[in-house]
Amino acid sequence: MRLTTAQALVRWMLAQRSELLDGTLVPLFPGVFAIFGHGNVLGLGSALAEHRQELPVWRGHSEQGMALAAVGYARATQRRQVAVVTSSIGPGALNMVTAAGVAHANRLPVLLLPGDTFAGRAPDPVLQQVEHFGDPTATVNDAFRSVSRYFDRILRPEQLIATLPQVARVLTDPADCGPVTLALPQDVQAETFDFPDALFAPRLHRVPRPRPDQRSLADAADVLRTARRPLLVLGGGVRYSGAAGRALRFAEQHGVPVTETTAGRTLVPHEHPLHAGPLGITGSASANTLAAEADVVLAVGTRLQDFTTASWTVFSPGVRLVALNTARFDAVKHGAIAVVGDADASLAELTGLLAQWRTEEDWSARAAVERTRWDTHIDVLRAATGDLPTYAQVVGVVNDHSGPGDYVMTASGGLPGELIGGWRATGVSTMDVEYGFSCMGYELAGAWGAAMALPDAVVTTLVGDGSYLMLNSELFSAAFAGHPFVAVVCDNDGYAVIARLQEAQGGRPFNNLYADCRSEHPDPPRADFAAHARALGCVVFSAESTEDLATAYRKAREAALERRRPAVVVIRTHPAAWTEAGAWWEVGVPEHLSGHADLTARKATQLRHLPP
């Protein structure tokens, strides 16, 4: 079949299918986000236009925003579908690198198709080309190599035959899953080749469920049987395996308290008697209390990031770690007994080996006792009175008005700690907190992608004023395209959570809250978020109190669905009221600060590293 490179790529994407966790067959590539320029408008753009009815193309307004929307789409579909993003060469391509980092850190599949300079080099240097004096083969797209699971530059049309099976492998492999980048020189996009028909044959991609090595599984069972205070930690791998039910049955059969990581949040019903709450510095004092006493930790589907482990201070020094993960890279960390396999299949086999083993009832009961104490603490925070609503109260209002099919999300700043620690699960796998790469701007763009993936749910994103100002263009993209979600914008006068970190570690207030930033104005202007969101085509509501917020949020949910566009709720929030989980996080505290007498934070860091 004689086709251009771009035509062949599009036809191949159309032929790929995927299987959802419930067995439903869907397109592997459900749509394309595109901003066209001279590096992709004629080649890939023309090929996409030929199939506009079969493969939806959505116009974005920031390449980074589009790619972050693709990340949000991948998370909302449990990695079973992959959104595609294409850009022109140069700045358009580089705008996607940050989003590639988000996908890479969080093990999420996206397909990035940046345009590239001419492979033939005859017209070089072309518009937007960055010339490397010592390497004519290098282009700005090489920046994607460090944040791609798989990278290729297509220099001849027939190279697609070899690379496309690898593209599908990485995007659907539970261990290697992550962003794929195919750099497409604009001349090669338009060149033709006689492609074999077999390349375009329909193909169903089922995510494999690798079974663990029986010897490793037996070792893990031996360690668990010795445990008097075992703890089960559930991460994102449990979510993507669809193993939440299996993990809960495992915990019930053996009486093991359960905690969740950031990516594993909302896997366990909040009121379950074995649920100890979320783990780590953005988690709960309840889970952290049990973690400090646990003698064996079974960590399933998690890379145990520093926020989860409180920089490896949340567990007791003598704890024994069993890590069950599809990726050996993650399973072997920190001297763990590694079990490499699918979470659902591996937990089933591990239960069989453990037979009737069960931990002591007193330890099992601690989960509900500690979590009830934490719930009481959150209730107090939600009921507090003051001049301005707190993040905890904003989370509480959204939580109270959300149903089991709704979806909540946030990223970076102070809101992740409030949402992770204070939310009470309304449904399974209904939260997305981007705290793997902690990318400001994901909140609004990712919500666009999640809203596309979950048309029957109300998607709510919580966003601070700093993130809103950093990347808001996809509010208009979603409004224009007709994808509704609710955005609650919390205005606390700047980068409040970084100001908190700065001052808590001995630093002086500087360049974070607006009051501590330089301006030539005696009375600097403030952003009018309501007017701005309205100008981007959104329905807008304002609130000044928690009571106002409850009314505004209810109206926003209704308006978003009725008018098929984002509904934005704007509220001023307290800049220094936080939910504290009682854990510690290691950051680089200076050994010396000129004019600063208080080096307590540095001394505390040094003490943490003394031998136990």
TrEMBL record:
Entry's Gene Ontology cellular component terms: acetolactate synthase complex
GO molecular function: acetolactate synthase activity; flavin adenine dinucleotide binding; hydrolase activity, acting on acid carbon-carbon bonds, in ketonic substances; magnesium ion binding; thiamine pyrophosphate binding
Keywords: Hydrolase, Thiamine pyrophosphate
Domain Thiamine pyrophosphate enzyme N-terminal TPP-binding as annotated: residue spans: 39-128
Family from the record: Belongs to the TPP enzyme family.
Signal peptide location: none
NCBIfam families, sorted: myo_inos_iolD
PANTHER family registered for this protein in UniProt: 3D-(3,5_4)-TRIHYDROXYCYCLOHEXANE-1,2-DIONE HYDROLASE, THIAMINE PYROPHOSPHATE ENZYMES
Thiamine pyrophosphate enzyme central domain ranges (all copies): 218-350
Native source organism of the sequence: Amycolatopsis marina
GO biological-process terms attached to the record: inositol catabolic process; isoleucine biosynthetic process; L-valine biosynthetic process
Residue ranges annotated for the Thiamine pyrophosphate enzyme TPP-binding domain, each copy included: 431-570
Protein name: 3D-(3,5/4)-trihydroxycyclohexane-1,2-dione hydrolase
InterPro entries: DHS-like_NAD/FAD-binding_dom (IPR029035), Myo_inos_IolD (IPR030817), THDP-binding (IPR029061), Thiamin_PyroP_enz_cen_dom (IPR012000), Thiamin_PyroP_enz_TPP-bd_dom (IPR012001), TPP_enz (IPR045229), TPP_enzyme_TPP-bd (IPR011766)
Matches recorded under CDD domains: TPP_PYR_POX_like
Classification via Pfam families: TPP_enzyme_C (PF02775), TPP_enzyme_M (PF00205), TPP_enzyme_N (PF02776)
